[in-house]
């Protein structure tokens, strides 16, 4: 039995019972409510998360067309099925245009359950894809902040100014009620605010080990404390009386293994615990620590990039996950091809920085598919000419998206060139032989291998033997013979 939460717009109790019986016969277990007026519809939409709306066409004081308009203007993405006596074709078409998913005549109820199952499935994928889009946008914003901080670090050695920019970025992402950076003076073992924003009262120095701030610095461990788990840390009210804080996140700012200070955000409302938020705050703190470190080192310019790189990398991982979410069929594809690319590259003697660039490039290889609409990306059949133009553009899109980020420039070969072919018949540039960067030659083989071994919206996975024959058949035309040799040797193992 599948549970569904059903909202019925129906004036006849008998018809409602009939519908419910049909659903139960079809293996659905509805919890439901029946409404027959505009006011009740408004209340129902506001109150509860519904999976499905089934609406009659004409009711004494309400109508299917109005119910549909109300649902659509509520912004909720819930399937709407019109189930009524025979209405004219014109009206049915009009309702579908207005966003109804289906029209089922009451004398043809056997169509109802299959339609519901189909629409719930559709709604589920739409929801998932929307989440993926939002996640991609969020990662883009994160990347932009990391860049802004990056620029501030290299552009200014004035600590106060840099920290101001830094705090602005933190503010944008977390929208706290107050935030500050506490700088550690290693000689006096005290922490002192270098920038602070949003506090009602000034707050002075804190000793290492004292209060929340001093604890984070001493233990070098992040601390998040929210209303429900006050037991875990001293009440915020005691530490900062008169501020009305209810939630807190504090993270240590570490650079080259030294503690530079503590970054803190405070909220005057209860906050749900958010692992992901805390780890992003840590990534930002690492950046801030580098800024402090370079300002403190007067020569500043030779600051280590390691922390910065780490911060970027965690953002990339999140981004790659978001991309996979969009196309359910290629889930895990990114992770698999990344691992396989690294193995193959190592087998070919590549190491160090070059390997790192390839790893990042592989992780992001299809980032340009962000610009490919669902209708094309998820099309169950072959693409037509126009659709191919858009699909091929995913390689040049990648260049547009990634090249503004200095740190990612060395990783562009794979996203940009992974569909070039050894004989020059690939895209986007028709590069030939060793004109194609090595990373892209390696990746091309891994990508095709993994793609063929997996289900796609347009075909089922192939058996391994068939993939092997296919890949061998493309050596020297699609693939670099040397890369192919190393690959075949590797998978023999
Ligand atoms: P993808 O699915 O990740 O496939 C990557 C590459 O693997 C393809 O690059 C192609 O070289 C190889 N490949 C994948 N599936 C097959 C297959 O069934 N037969 C053969 N012979 N080779 C295969 P390509 O062709 O440049 O395609 C790039 C992307 O375009 C694909 O990435 C996929 O997202 C999309 N695409 C390709 N063909 C179709 C199609 O027929 N329908 C739809 N909806 N999308 C397609
Ligand atoms: C964001 O909204 O950009 C991310 C902030 C968070 O991780 O909570
Ligand atoms: C590089 O040559 O270092 C980059 C290789 C790649 O990402 O394809
Ligand atoms: Fe691709
Ligand atoms: Fe791919």
Helix content: 40-55%
So how many helices? 18
Mean pLDDT: 87
Q: How many β-strands, per DSSP?
A: 13
Ligand list: ligand C2E, succinic acid, fe (iii) ion
Question: How much beta, percentage-wise?
Answer: 5-15%
Helix vs. strand class: alpha/beta
Overall body shape: flat
| CATH class placement of the largest domain | Alpha Beta
Largest sheet, spatial ordering of strands: 10-9-8-13-12-11
CATH superfamily of the largest domain: GAF domain
Q: What is the CA–CA distance across the termini?
A: 46 Å
* Total domain units: 3
Which sheet architecture does the biggest sheet show? 6 strands, antiparallel
| Uncertain parts | 298-306
Which terms summarize this structure?
493 residues, alpha/beta, Rossmann fold, Beta-Lactamase, Hypothetical protein af1432, 3 domains, binds ligand C2E, binds succinic acid, binds fe (iii) ion
Commentary on this structure:
This protein is of the alpha/beta class and 493 residues long. About 2% of the residues have low confidence. Strand 6, helix 4 and strand 7 form a beta-alpha-beta unit. It folds into three domains: 99 residues, Rossmann fold (3-Layer(aba) Sandwich), CATH 3.40.50; 176 residues, GAF domain (Beta-Lactamase); 166 residues, Orthogonal Bundle (Hypothetical protein af1432), CATH 1.10.3210. The chain starts with a strand and ends with a helix. The strands form three sheets. It has a six-stranded antiparallel beta sheet with strand order 10-9-8-13-12-11. The structure holds ligand C2E, succinic acid (2 copies) and fe (iii) ion (2 copies).
